[in-house]
Write a structure and sequence with these properties.
Number of strands: 12
Shape: globular
Oligomer: single chain
CATH topology: Glycosyltransferase
Number of domains: 1
Structural class: mainly alpha
Radius of gyration: 20 Å
Amino acid sequence: MSAPLSELLPKAQHLLTQLITPDGFLASTQESDNYRRIWTRDSVVCGLAGLLLKDKTLVNGLKASLKTLGDHQHSSGMIPSNVAPETSEVSYGSLVGRIDTASWWILGACLYYQHTNDTIFWKYAQPIVEKAQSFLKAAEFNGKGWIYTPLSGNWADEYPVHGYTLYDNVLRLWAESLWLKLSNSDAPQNEILQKTLHNFWPMPASNRNLAYQKTSFEKLQTGSLSHFLSFILPGVYDTRFDAAGNALALLLFDLSEAQQSRLEAYIETLKMELGGALIPAFWPIITETSEDYFLLKGNYSYDFKNHPGHFHNGGIWPVWMGLFCLGLSKQNMNPSVSEIVAAFVSTLAKHPHWNFHEYLDAHTLTPGGTEALGYTASGIVFMDAALQNKTSFS
């Protein structure tokens, strides 16, 4: 492990500890855009970091978060986007409901139980999981195994990713696979796993019988893709890069040698375009001339953040870059992990006042967004674990 990252790791662990309240993890210590609340995805991500660190305090913080959020589950099965414990104000999403929170909660509950064998919590969690699963099943709309995410329906709530998204569906599959394992269920899952793998990264050898839409599928079967797709819509296989979705897919699936080679080449492409082996949240950047700019320009709650290279729109989020490194490590792509971490550390060396900022600007590599973010501290933990080939959360 490089010395600079080793210096960051205890600071990241300390920040994660500072975020713990009796009700769970706050997203940040900063008073900004409702970050001082218990958020589902932020809490589980921080919990994943705690599990990798085997830090009992952080693992207990995950439990407290799950309890706060589970106690406020909607009658339909939705898990809150966030809860303000002091006022009991609950949000299931602002402009639209959040699909990913249910899967994050299930994942967090399963990993917590797997790690602790806390049977009292598990008894509490099971009916919540079952209700959340019913909600996710209804969100398929056609009963064929993929959930359909509305615009603004996941973590990238101000970015035009929607439909059958890689991120939401792979996250759900990971959560469901853990649930089935812990429940000793023999329910079949292989078919939907194969359907997801073949459609979100069509390769020449992919099974055409599994194609969601054969015309779009066959156009991408040439082997030209270098990563998993971002999302699928009727008539559209969207080929942009989604770091979070790809990270989760790398943790769930086993890539072929051809796919590994193509992904390595894509990282080299990003290296040339960004001036370093850094991983943006989404790529390429949406500009005013992009065909889906109209879906971006008015979609925000507080102020417009998605300027080219910023926030979701090409911003480099350490949390997803760290999880992506963890996925690369699981694929035994260790040279790529080392190169990405080295580029990140080198970038931070030029910004001594960096304070666990939300993202880096893709053009200038300067820090941006909210500071003291648990997401970002977790990303540091993920990078460290990836360098050490520690990819198991149990």
